[in-house]
Design a protein that fits this description.
The chain contains 1 helix and 13 strands. By secondary structure, it is mostly beta strands. It has 2 domains: 36 residues, Single Sheet (N-terminal domain of TfIIb), CATH 2.20.25; 54 residues, SH3 type barrels (Roll). The strands form 5 sheets. It has a 3-stranded antiparallel beta sheet with strand order 1-2-3. A 3-stranded antiparallel beta sheet has the order 9-6-13, with no helix packed on it. It has a 3-stranded antiparallel beta sheet with strand order 10-11-12, with no helix packed on it. The radius of gyration is 18 Å and the shape is elongated. It starts with 15 loop residues before the first strand and ends with a strand.
Amino acid sequence: MSQFPPCPQCGSEYTYQDGEMLVCPECAHEWSGSAAAVEEETRVVRDAVGNLLQDGDSVTVIKDLKVKGSSLVVKVGTKVKNIRLVDGDHDIDCKIDGIGAMGLKSEFVKKA
């Protein structure tokens, strides 16, 4: 059928090329066809101990963390539920009770 790989999001085999991007007509997902882009999409995030983190996991903070622009501190042992992995310097988005929404680095947490 197609010489292009299936869509990484929905698995459709009807992908096509548009310029340098590959496009899925079923879910409208676009991605680069290069090997570096495939590796970027399958990027893994590990905690301080080396456990693989995924969206929806619960983690525990392993170090006191000062909240920038505030006098608040996230204490050691604080449990954070339902994390979301994002790209960037702080690779975890979460909501901490009493503090609110914030970004954490995976090197300061361990999987609960």
